[in-house]
Amino acid sequence: MNIQIRPYQHSDKPQLMSLLKRNIPDYFAPSEEADFAEYLDHHREYYFVVEVDGIVLGSGGFNLTEDRKTAKISWDLFNPESQGKRLGSALTRFRIQQIQSIEGIDLISVRTSQLVYPFYQKFGFETTAIVKDYWDIGFDLVQMERPLHHAIDKPESE
């Protein structure tokens, strides 16, 4: 399996929108489709695509806060059939390495759901807030963060 993580290109958008739709309603609310399109067009800073043997199977990125002290992990999504194959772990480790190369950042945060937060715990993220039905009914916000430099940067399992 040849995994490549590369910068997002505008030509990736149709494939990523299709991947998002494949994750609705299990991991994303239908209302998030327009939000993702808006993010890709106007708000992404550092966004990456995961390819395996030349096929786009996932994506995810991060943005910096205005003071450039916090990196916010954003919009992770994967082909449902490729989940559990360590692609999410590879992408998360890659982003942490990218973030570590940017001067001045000391915190990484992620806003996720009650469905996915255990994945981020494996990377040392700790829950700081929960807001019920934040994303949509049945999709709670779980706010998590961790210091940039953390002992758990290479989890053994996904």
From TrEMBL:
Every N-acetyltransferase domain range: 3-149
Entry keyword annotation includes Transferase: yes
Record's keyword terms, sorted: Transferase
GO MF: acyltransferase activity, transferring groups other than amino-acyl groups
SUPFAM superfamilies: Acyl-CoA N-acyltransferases (Nat)
Domain of life assignment: Bacteria
Signal peptide region: none
Gene3D superfamilies: 3.40.630.30
UniProt xrefs under Pfam families: Acetyltransf_1
InterPro entries reported in the protein's UniProt record: Acyl_CoA_acyltransferase (IPR016181), GNAT_dom (IPR000182)
UniProt-recorded name of the protein: GNAT family N-acetyltransferase
Organism of provenance: Flavobacterium supellecticarium
